[in-house]
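Standup notes, structure subgroup. Blocker cleared on the iron/sulfur cluster input:
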Amino acid sequence: MAVAQPVGVYEREDLLTGCQAVAEGIRLANVDVIAAYPIRPYTEVMDAISKIIADGKLVAEYIVADSEHSQFEIVKHAASVGARAFAGSSGTGWMYGFEALVVTATDRLPVLFLVGNRALDDPGAFGVEHNDALAIRDMGWLLCWVATAQEALEHVLLGYRIAEDREVRMPMALAMDGAFLTHSQHIVRIPSQEAVNRFLPPFDLGERRLHPDNPVSIAPQVNEDWVMEIRRQNWEAARRARGVIATAYEEFNQVFGQRYRPPYSFEEFLTDDAEVVLIGMGTVAMPARTAVRRLREQGHRVGYVNLRWFRPFPTEELRESLRRFRAVGVIDRDFAHGAPDDGGVLLHEVRSCLYPVRERPAVVNFITGLGGRDVSIQDAIRMYEITQEAARKDRLDGFVTWVGVRE
Amino acid sequence: MATADKVLVYDRIKGVKQIPLEEFYTSGHRTCQGCESATVMRQFIKAAGPRTVVAGSTGCMYVANTSYMTTPWIVPWMHTQLGAGGSSAVGMAAGLRALMRKNRIPQEKIHVISFCGDLGGGDMGLSGISGALQTDYDLLIIMYDNESAANTDIQATGLTTWGAQTTFSPVGKVERIMHRRWKKNVAAMLAVGHPNCRYVATACATFPPLDFLNKVRKALSIGGPTFIHTYDPCPKGWDFHPRYSHELGELGVRSGLLPLYEIIDGEVVYTYDARKTAKGRIPVREYLTRQGRFAHLTEEDMAHIQRMVDQMWDEWEVPGVAPFRGTLKVSA
Ligand SMILES: Cc1ncc(C[n+]2csc(CCOP(=O)(O)OP(=O)(O)O)c2C)c(N)n1
Ligand code: SF4
Ligand SMILES: [Mg+2]
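Run returned:
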């Protein structure tokens, strides 16, 4: 299946699923410790990595854990001795290991996790919903959504680069929509090891690594004496991460050509003259962009904003961008029952980001695509129409529509 | 015992004078006076020495032990979660091995030790410890058993002795015995289920003298994942004067309630053989009546505990260790 042709900094092109692309990223990042546990849809990444290791293409400790809690604790402690580590999960598995996810962040250990987004039980559903990954949004994780397999591979490299930076040292969750990206195949250009080595330095935990030559005590009991200062340090790291993210993309572009454009944390599609935009995360970008093209053929000035980085939230840049429009429709592939105006998680982030702007666009919200339900081009067109309607009306914040639900 | 020492090559501490003088667990902790779990800490790291990394699960040996800015640990130490006794050891061992394989840190033997309490290890973390004992990493998990969730103010666990009063098993007007679980047989269970784990032992920090130190040395020298369960009298939780901590450990062992043994490559070696045909055992009441947590027990209750202990030693296929009775029967 491979077309083995070096293309500059790329060694070959291949047809890969999102999960397989991440596995290639793990190989190229020369990850030291990998812990696996099965749950659809993220599992395929571990299938691919175990084959890569079995084929001798990566030297790593590969552990099949007894539970997600152990899986996550294993990589956390592997990172604590200075190893580059990888794990991942989906849906209810992610929640099973939640305690470990929190301490990985509060201990500032820069592991990378793949979250193949999946609906939380009950009732059972394999399909995408973003609530699993969003559960860590307040814990001190870097959290980023990718929309193609190429981006997935590249964000493994970017992820380690950013997470391991001395200024950051936070764990990184790379989220991708279950099925729509984890299992859909794309042509992926695979970077050469030489190019990756130029971009991604080896992991060095420095004075914080656990080793007999560096006898530190990590995470002793602090109580009210110190916990607030430590929270503050973590808060500052998350703030610094914004700058490191921009630097990392610039460095990436220097090695790999102009792959990403500022502001990096999100991507705009046909917004220059737009009056109305939708904003969403993940693969919903595909139907949304097609809808934009179709509506533009009919003379509608609409655009799409693909939000990539959810944590840290690109507050300033997004505020400056969205204030240009008359209305913003926020697509939530998640739920936040009982939240203000009964909207989704992203609604509240976008609305609060826009709040300091005096002349704010109208903000409306769509809950859609839950449990892996397809978001069709027609659905996207409907969301644009509702957002256009909101632009024409007087301010009408907190207006939530469920799209594609039997009512 | 002699056979085991013959096959197992390790740096044995032969007498009190050979106990290393260096302390790697020193001042700075706030454990109660007479805390035998703290003695376990002090001893395991003395036996292991400074080329060791340690993870410690939440519990008294975290909260009372390791306050910010006053750590008692001279060796690198890290907190781990209540149920992560096994997984934390695997993570550290895997990380160190990977870094050595890739020549990013010097090749050397670094001991990996993780400790957890009876609730953290024996109840919540069993699955993770089982996972760890299936790996091929060199690591030692020490479950220090003070027979309660001591840190959260003495609640019953799966390893609390039958009938004990705890804050979750108080004596009431109608119920005298609220804790009706028989002490979980963790060490033997792990040994039976993990035939690749070459060394499992139970120990008491001070009885017999030197024994625990040497068990740690054996576990660390045999290779692969290993497990030690220690019985730790806890003055606060068991309600006795701290001056009797060592004595209570000894009484527990000699009563047969707390069996002391090693399982080395599948062979059971008794440290204290409490069978009537061997050293025998003292009546359990001599142990029970020394502790406030058993003050409410009637003669009948104590007789029940005695019957259970007698059964362990007189009827079990592997006395005090494995609760099978009788040998193979072939059904028709
Ligand atoms: C997941 C989780 N649940 C509950 C607690 C609260 N907790 C802290 S220490 C502790 C008791 C632990 O008992 P044990 O493992 O026997 O250790 P000990 O306190 O007796 O030393 C509990 C329940 C916790 N820290 N984490
Ligand atoms: S309560 Fe028990 S285990 Fe905890 S510090 Fe005191 S004596 Fe030790
Ligand atoms: Mg305990």
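Discussed briefly. The radius of gyration of chain A is 21 Å.
Next: hand off to the docking folks.
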